[in-house]
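pasting for ref
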Amino acid sequence: MREEQYKLYQDQLIECFSKININKGDTIYLTGNISKLGRVRLSKNQKIQGLHHALLAKIGKESTIFSPAASMNLCNKDLPFDIKNTPSHEMGPLAEYFRLLPESIRSLHPFWSICGIGKDADCLNSSSKHAYGMGSPWSSMLDLNTKQVNFGLHPSKAVTLIHHIETIVGVPYRYTKEFSHPILLDGSLKEELFYLSVQYLESSVQKKILLNEHFFEALDSKGLLHESEHPTGMKIWSFLMKDFYNIVIPFFINNIYTYLEQPPKKRPYSL
């Protein structure tokens, strides 16, 4: 009975992927909350493994899957970052599953790393020391025409790509901060410099209550946001990251504070 449920679950996911423009050979960035799959009588590991296998059945072996592996809990602490063993923090069981796969490759950044498996995952080995911006994993994923797939959580609430875009356009309320952090790599412990885009603490930044919804309304209006629903009621979305990038850049060109509720009242970056 459990085997039949597992196969049905996978078949249903494959059908969902077909409805959101997921195809053979695609490069995928996978994120979200799979707790909405609670009505499936499978263990958490079986649900995640089934999702992985269903996705592979759709995109094939000549493909790539990326997932978040951030560990922001290490920021401003002396705890070493171990590229193999440091768990992701608050990224959820889906992210941890992909991080722990034997073939998984992880970018070298103690606070905002990305994991990848498959054809082009080795691009993470040459990522810069910057979490966002040129040479970062986000830049590589854009170059690879990656599609972001969100499970159970609308992408407007889980689109870290927006911080990469903020870095590229140079929003004034953020700056690139240098961190010296201990790294455990190949059995050796050493201090290395890393860079992360952070907000000015004194700038009283107020993000929009609805965050990225205006961006996704624009994306959806052009037919570039795809949505399906698993029989359990869990929704799944996909969009081409490059489409999101191209939609959002003009917002920032027209209004550099488009991501905020209003321009900051305190601007330590202003003369």
